[in-house]
User: Fold SIS domain-containing protein from Streptantibioticus ferralitis.
Amino acid sequence: MAAIEHMAQEIDSQPDVWRQAAEIAAGDVPLPAPGERVAVVGCGTSWFMAQSYAALRERAGHGTTDAFAASEAFAAGDAFAERGYDTVLAITRSGTTTELLRLMDRLKGRTRTVAVVGDQRTPIAEACDAIVGLPFADERSVVQTRFATSALLLLRRHLGEAVEGAVRDVADALRRPVDPAWVRAEQFTFLGHGWTYGLANEAALKMREASQSWTEAYPLLEYRHGPIAIAAPDRVTWVLGPETGELEADVAKTGALFVHHDRDALADLVLVQRVALERARARGLDPDRPRGLTRSVILNA
Assistant:
């Protein structure tokens, strides 16, 4: 049990750190203003939070917002820098990821850059024009949980969303029992629509990282266009966010377990984090030190 204590504690702390993130967002923070043309970049989990924020910002009418994996944006070179963004927003827990730092260096003096970061004492602080620090959400576990969700909650609040319901829902998600069928399941498919598609991608990644599970993620309405073929008994189809009710019957015909909760989708992601943790425990794995992963990817060249 001690080997996975960090991830467990970090998951459980999310109601408190979400409240702190919301308080920061309500203040004077250097995040993109309405009307700006914005690119949001990150790696791994942070890229998926970027996808969710981009969809939310455009839906709120704040302007064009594109999400990129930082490695792909850097690889695009001057073509990315010349796309005419007013601000490039980076999401990074560690502040040390090589691809992200290289991208910020390439943009210096050409495009305004801002980072939402867990550790403010890292190179990203010098690489960007401004930072928003969330040190209370930083983590010791390699597998990200609370930093990612707190960063997205901060961004949602800054867009003008009322997030009190999400904070109530995450407390509920932490109290709910984890279904043993979820722990035993052979395979998971996560689905989302609009801003929750990024959460579906992150849910699948969390399962892979923490418990080496077979997981996939798709846009909700794409599921019938092929991916549903993988659904079968002892497998799970989990929808994050709104669902019309039509999909449940189709999944039932396959024998797969259909999961959908009437709560804020970001809070439902926290329940997925708990499932990933329980699956790791059941397999004797240590999600604080997952196979082949480190807290930050730092390249030599």
Summary: The mean pLDDT is 94. The longest helix spans residues 265-282.
